[in-house]
Design a protein that fits this description.
Number of strands: 17
CATH superfamily of the largest domain: Reverse transcriptase/Diguanylate cyclase domain
Radius of gyration: 45 Å
Shape: rod-shaped
Distance between the termini: 138 Å
Number of domains: 3
Structural class: alpha+beta
CATH class of the largest domain: Alpha Beta
Strand order of the largest sheet: 6-5-10-9-8-7
CATH topology of the largest domain: Alpha-Beta Plaits
Number of helices: 10
CATH architecture of the largest domain: 2-Layer Sandwich
Length: 387
């Protein structure tokens, strides 16, 4: 006699008419209700003890089980008793990219730390697993496996290891690829917030460092000419004396600068000072130091240069450069310069103040001799300041 179709069943095949009725699926474990799905394998009746042995039940392909798991566990794998992947969650498929999962043997496509066969893996039910894809880009995963049926069907739920969350965007995943209840979603928001805060912190640190460097630069820089100032000169002299290398100190004083300043005004005076700074720096090397230490006073430190003839040639070029006329607001300004130099080789133990003073003595002799010239300090001769 024909029986009405039960929900979730299929129309009977004529060949099934001789088969006994199928029993209802039994619970597969404590706390787990009947698994709704197709019955796989023959139906077996009561055994010798009278216990009914039911068919092996696999989670329901086409019954909504996988669809539900795709929502609840979008990074899960459903395994058959032999360890083959029967179904994979959509997020795990996206993460796997071109790796083939469904139909493959789990241990061929995934590496499981400390577990080398399916039997050992099944014994790990409920314990945390450390996993990764067996090929391609290494992606650290954490997982837990649970049996679905007594016959060995299993469900393996996976999630990204904490170390991988920063690279989430590189895998093409977003928060929508995780179950709403997955704490990974909260972690992603925290990471994003932390990343934003860290970016702001780094930007602030860069700005502070930039401001610090600028303040330090300004502290040792003459703002008008861009040359070093007196503080920077003192540091440079101390450093070169500590290095114990020969050097020369040349003082430069502009001739007729006060006349320009008084006649044409401070704007013209500033233009002349910048012109003089450019003329000096054009004739020195990158290893030399040029500083403006007063209104119209400059100092040059020549590192490793104590040859008088070379220093005289450089001084002559500096004077010629400074004497080139400067036009300011249609007004032509003309100045010159007097120079005096002291050489470190003339001292048993060079001292910055003593050499600066001796370079000044040489400069006064240049002015006394008619200006626009260079003089070397003679440590033997006794000479005082010239008028």
């Amino acid at each position: 006699m024909n029986r009405p179709l039960a929900p979730h069943s299929v129309a009977p095949h004529p060949a099934d008419s001789a088969m006994p009725p199928r029993p209802s699926p039994a619970p597969v474990g404590p706390g787990i209700g009947p698994v709704i799905g197709p019955v796989i394998g023959p139906v077996v009746g009561p055994d010798a003890s009278g216990r009914v042995v039911g068919p092996r039940v696999a989670p329901g392909v086409g019954t909504g089980f996988d669809d539900a798991m795709d929502i609840l566990m979008p990074m899960h794998l459903r395994l058959d008793p032999e360890g083959h992947i029967v179904h994979a969650g959509p997020s795990l498929l996206r993460l796997a990219a071109d790796r083939r999962l469904v139909g493959a043997r789990l241990l061929d496509v995934m590496s499981v730390r400390r577990e080398r066969d399916v039997a050992a893996l099944m014994q790990s039910t409920g314990r945390p697993l450390q996993m990764s894809f067996a090929s391609g880009r290494h992606i650290a995963l954490r997982g837990v496996i649970a049996r679905l049926t007594p016959q060995g069907d299993a469900l393996l739920n996976l999630t990204l290891a904490l170390s991988e969350l920063i690279e989430l965007g590189g895998y093409g995943l977003t928060v929508t690829d995780f179950a709403p209840t997955d704490p990974t979603v909260d972690m992603l928001y925290l990471i994003e917030a932390n990343s934003g805060a860290m970016d702001e912190t780094r930007n602030l640190i860069r700005r502070l460092q930039g401001a610090k460097h600028e303040a330090e630069r300004e502290a040792v820089t003459d703002t008008l000419t861009g040359l070093r100032n007196r503080r920077a000169l003192d540091r440079a002299l101390d450093a070169i004396i500590a290095d114990d290398v020969p050097f020369a100190v040349t003082n430069v004083d502009l001739d007729y600068f006060k006349l320009v300043n008084d006649t044409h005004g401070h704007a013209a005076g500033d233009a002349v000072l910048r012109h003089a700074a450019e003329a000096i720096t054009a004739e020195v090397r990158g290893s030399d130091v040029v500083a403006r230490v007063g209104g119209d006073e400059f100092v040059i430190i020549f590192r490793g240069l104590v040859d008088p003839s070379v220093l005289n040639e450089i001084a002559a070029r500096i004077i010629a450069g400074i004497e080139r006329p400067v036009v300011v607001e249609a007004k032509t300004c003309r100045i010159s310069a007097s120079l005096g130099t002291a050489l470190s080789v003339h001292y048993d133990a060079p001292k910055a103040d003593r050499m600066r003073a001796d370079a000044d003595l040489a400069l006064y002799r240049s002015k006394a001799a008619g200006r626009a010239r260079h003089s070397l300090h003679d440590p033997v001769a006794s000479a005082g300041p010239a008028g």
